């Protein structure tokens, strides 16, 4: 056989380099990643910026705006809304739009001005919040763009509530939102207002920022929302609103919402809306209030109202109710009175004279509570969305049917049920029933069973007798209620002259009705007219202007910002001024002296800026001489202590009060202390001329007596405690000693030192000397204490009485036993301290 050639013999490799899969893979990988990088770079080059992608999405959404068909909308996702808004809605559990939302959101997205009206609780808030968010989203707004949407609310609470809804629904957007309301830190607001994209505010505070915050401007504004527009105007903010609107760009979108429309809203609409779309969802509805709301009214005499309120609360302890009153001071007094009455349910209070922090606290508190009663003025009537309110009780008749509708709207919100009860005086029934009927409010009369009414007048009287401060609050409440009735425009419903004044005052717990000067004057004026009892609008306006625009304090319009926003900042001063005017009013109300009439004018003047001819230029009486004599006279006037005291009294400084209650409700500690004497019965008469020093002294002496007595009791108690402690310590020591003595006896027996006297068993004389001295005022008590204990232990008398023991001291235990067995305890008839002294005496003799 031929040998294989060398070529053939060379072994062929199994896998050549071309077929090597590892290498191939690496090659491929290299190639692929190159390609990938290329693609990436290419894509990167071609990639649109985020804003551009968003713009395209926005364009696509905007294209759909014209196709919005209200009748086809079933869910929020049927609207061309941004993903961020839709996600926010889902997260906040809003899925299906309500009727007002269906009808207005589309129009607002299309950029139209909208005037929307729908029943209370029908979801108007979302109807403007969604378009507001979408408006800025469409503009791709950033924080650098400044203010884009402005939402104006009539009250601070409503503004806060809207802010919360915005925060919930707009959480996925990056816009900044701010709450600008009175009563908050102005500086803090100023610092961040220019970075805010959506501003929710009350009118007074907004105007203040427009005037005072240099870098705050609204020139970029796209949307203005006026929530509860009619209320804003009702509260006398028309001028403020005009001033605000003047500061806004003309090219903007305006949305205006309310549950009720008044002529003033139409005026505002003319002023601020361009070709608006009117959306009145429930225009054709049979009733203007929610279908799920049951409404009744009862006729009740004024003097029975408080009993009725108490009985109502006692019957609804497990419910959440809101009770509406017409004035702040009424609310203030009845809140305090009801806290004392302890109806068995938490009572909260919300009114315009509270500090902002307190207002927010109460608002949040009432939201959280499952059962509670909220006493409120009309500050709470608009827009507030407290969950699960079952009852709205209107203890005072509302100003008009619109106010009625908003008040009752605090219950039966968004498909929930609720009940409303209106309390009418016999004189109010006809006029109010007519108004409610015209406004399509379905309401029926129900009767109260007078036997079921719980009478609290006696208890209120007792409270007022104990507390002067509460009594004054009751007097203010009285005057304030009458004034609110007097200031009501609709005289068909409200007639202050028909009110039973004395019974009403008594029902508040007052002994007599305070004298109300403005009523007397009004009465005098109306008596001189043909038709007495009627008051013209002009007269009311004149009265209001005399009050210097402060009538809102006592009327329903107590709530919001002040138009004068700088005044708003200085709430405490304002309160002081009010207090002062009140105290003057109070003084003037109580006393009938003729010279007191000046006070009445003073009450009014204090609240007005009077143009006075200060220098007497007009009558030519201004001369340097005159002025000098006047100033001399001023200087020579002596300032006595009594005068100073009178001044202080007039200023009515309030010291802080503190009451500590025990678990059982007993007052344990009270500051300032209550007057215990009854000498002040006649004092009211003396108040007219300031302080009656003689009487004051007499009262002080009497008070002193009570104080001394109380002090003595306290000291006694202290001593007693001390003694008991010492006794316990002694007992323990004795026990220990006797145990030790057992051992000692054995030891001593061995030692043989039997004659020694162990004086350690004797009481420490110094200790008892101290005790004795402090016992002066508590002899009786200590005697009784010892009587109780002596038979059990009688340590010292037995020692003192057993002379033998001294000589046989070492056999103490036995002797002690003997002394207990053989001898009757020696009752010296002396106090413990005296007994001790006797022992010491005997010892020292030995
Ligand atoms: N689409 C919705 N789905 C579910 N709940 C809603 C919807 N819209 C509003 N609500 C709820 O209905 C309640 C009332 O809403 P809102 O406060 O906006 O009413 P309103 O019409 O402004 O009332 P008012 O006239 O008293 O101000 C709120 O508790 C709100 O959360």
UniProtKB/TrEMBL annotation:
Extent of Basic residues compositional bias: 28-46, 713-722
What the entry lists under Pfam families is as follows: CTE_SPB4, DEAD, Helicase_C
Q: Where is this motif: Q motif?
A: 74-102
Q: What InterPro entries does the record tag this protein with?
A: DEAD/DEAH_box_helicase_dom, Helicase_ATP-bd, Helicase_C-like, P-loop_NTPase, RNA-helicase_DEAD-box_CS, RNA_helicase_DEAD_Q_motif, SPB4-like_CTE
Biased region (Basic and acidic residues) positions are: 695-712, 723-738
Q: Which UniProt keywords apply?
A: ATP-binding, Helicase, Hydrolase, Nucleotide-binding, RNA-binding
Upper taxonomic lineage: Eukaryota, Metazoa, Chordata, Craniata, Vertebrata
What's the protein called, per UniProt?
ATP-dependent RNA helicase
Give the enzyme's main class according to its UniProt record, as a single word: hydrolase
Q: Which PANTHER family match?
A: RNA HELICASE (PTHR24031)
The cellular component terms of Gene Ontology attached to this UniProt record, alphabetical and capped at eight, are: cytoplasm; nucleus
Q: Where is this region: Disordered?
A: 1-51, 545-582, 672-830
Q: What is its EC number?
A: 3.6.4.13
Annotated GO biological processes are: rRNA processing
**Species of origin:** Xenopus laevis
Domain DEAD-box RNA helicase Q, by residue range, is: 74-102
GO molecular function: any one? hydrolase activity
Name the SUPFAM superfamilies on file. P-loop containing nucleoside triphosphate hydrolases
């Amino acid at each position: 056989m031929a040998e294989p050639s060398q070529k053939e013999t060379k072994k062929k490799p199994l896998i050549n380099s071309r077929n090597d899969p590892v290498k191939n893979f690496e090659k491929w990988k290299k190639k692929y990643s190159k390609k990938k990088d290329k693609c990436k770079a290419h894509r990167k080059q071609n990639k649109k910026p985020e804003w551009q992608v968003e713009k395209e999405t926005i364009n696509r959404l905007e294209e759909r705006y014209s196709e919005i068909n209200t009748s086809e909308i079933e869910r929020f996702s049927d609207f061309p809304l941004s993903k961020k808004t839709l996600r926010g809605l889902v997260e906040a559990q809003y899925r299906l739009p309500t009727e007002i939302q269906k009808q207005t959101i589309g129009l607002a997205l299309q950029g139209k001005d909208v005037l929307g009206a729908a029943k209370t609780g029908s979801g108007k808030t979302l109807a403007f919040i969604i378009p507001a968010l979408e408006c800025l989203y469409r503009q791709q707004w950033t924080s650098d763009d400044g203010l884009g949407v402005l939402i104006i609310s009539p009250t601070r609470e409503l503004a806060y509530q809207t802010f919360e809804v915005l925060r919930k629904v707009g959480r996925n957007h990056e816009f900044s939102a701010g709450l600008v309301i009175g009563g908050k830190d102005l500086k803090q607001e100023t610092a961040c207002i220019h970075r805010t994209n959506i501003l929710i505010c009350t009118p007074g505070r907004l105007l203040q920022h427009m005037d005072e915050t240099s870098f705050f401007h609204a020139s970029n504004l796209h949307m203005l929302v006026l929530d509860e527009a009619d209320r804003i105007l009702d509260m006398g903010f028309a001028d403020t609103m005009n001033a605000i609107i003047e500061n806004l760009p003309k090219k903007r979108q305006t949305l205006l919402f309310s549950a009720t429309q008044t002529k003033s809203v139409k005026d505002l609409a003319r002023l601020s809306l361009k070709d608006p779309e009117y959306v009145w969802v429930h225009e054709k509805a049979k009733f203007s209030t929610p279908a799920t709301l049951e409404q009744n009214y009862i006729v009740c005499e004024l003097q029975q109202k408080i009993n009725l309120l108490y009985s109502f609360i006692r019957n609804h302890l497990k419910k959440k109710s809101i009770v509406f009153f017409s004035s702040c001071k009424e609310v203030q007094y009845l809140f305090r009175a009801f806290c004392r009455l302890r109806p068995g349910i938490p009572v909260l209070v919300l009114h315009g004279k509270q500090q902002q922090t307190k207002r927010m606290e109460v608002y949040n508190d009432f939201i959280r509570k499952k059962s509670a009663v909220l006493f409120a003025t009309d500050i709470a009537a608009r827009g507030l969305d407290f969950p699960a309110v079952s009852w709205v009780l209107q203890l005072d008749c509302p100003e008009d049917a619109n106010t009625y509708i908003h008040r009752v709207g605090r219950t039966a919100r968004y498909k929930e049920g609720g009940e409303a009860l209106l309390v009418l005086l016999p004189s109010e029934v006809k006029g109010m029933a007519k108004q409610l009927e015209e406004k399509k409010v379905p309401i029926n009369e129900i009767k109260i069973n007078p036997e079921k009414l719980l009478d609290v007048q006696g208890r209120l009287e007792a409270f007022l007798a104990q507390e002067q401060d509460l009594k004054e609050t009751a007097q203010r409440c009285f005057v304030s209620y009458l004034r609110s009735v007097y200031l009501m425009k609709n005289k068909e419903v409200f007639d202050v002259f028909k009110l039973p004044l004395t019974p009403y005052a008594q029902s508040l717990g007052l002994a007599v009705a305070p004298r109300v000067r403005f009523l007397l004057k009004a009465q005098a004026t109306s008596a001189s007219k043909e038709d007495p009892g009627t008051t013209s609008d002009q007269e009311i306006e004149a009265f209001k202007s005399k009050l210097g625009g402060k009538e809102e304090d006592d009327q329903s319009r107590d709530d919001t910002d002040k138009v004068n926003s700088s005044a708003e900042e200085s709430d405490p001063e304002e309160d002081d001024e009010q207090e002062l005017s009140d105290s003057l009013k109070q003084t003037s109300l109580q006393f009938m002296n003729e010279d007191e009439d000046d006070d009445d004018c003073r009450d009014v003047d204090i609240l007005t800026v009077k143009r006075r001819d200060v220098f007497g230029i007009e009558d030519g009486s201004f001369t340097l001489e005159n002025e000098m004599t006047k100033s001399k006279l001023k200087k020579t006037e002596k300032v006595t202590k009594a005068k100073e005291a009178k001044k202080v009294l007039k200023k009515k400084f309030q010291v802080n009060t503190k009451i500590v209650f025990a678990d059982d409700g007993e007052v344990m500690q009270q500051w300032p202390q209550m007057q215990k004497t009854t000498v002040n019965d006649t004092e009211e008469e003396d108040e007219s001329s300031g302080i009656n020093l003689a009487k004051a002294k007499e009262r002080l002496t009497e008070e002193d007596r009570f104080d001394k007595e109380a002090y003595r009791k306290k000291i006694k108690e202290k001593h007693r405690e001390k003694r008991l402690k010492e006794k316990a310590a002694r007992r323990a020591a004795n026990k220990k000693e006797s145990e030790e003595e057992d051992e000692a006896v054995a030891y001593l027996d061995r030692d043989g030192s039997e004659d020694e006297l162990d004086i350690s068993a004797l009481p420490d004389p110094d200790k008892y000397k101290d005790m004795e001295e402090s016992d002066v005022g508590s002899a009786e008590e200590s005697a009784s204490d010892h009587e109780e204990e002596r038979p059990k232990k009688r340590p010292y008398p037995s020692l003192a009485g057993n002379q033998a023991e001294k000589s046989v001291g070492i056999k103490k235990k036995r002797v002690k036993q003997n002394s207990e067995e053989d001898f009757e305890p020696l009752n010296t008839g002396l106090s413990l301290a005296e007994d001790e002294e006797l022992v010491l005496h005997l010892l020292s003799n030995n």
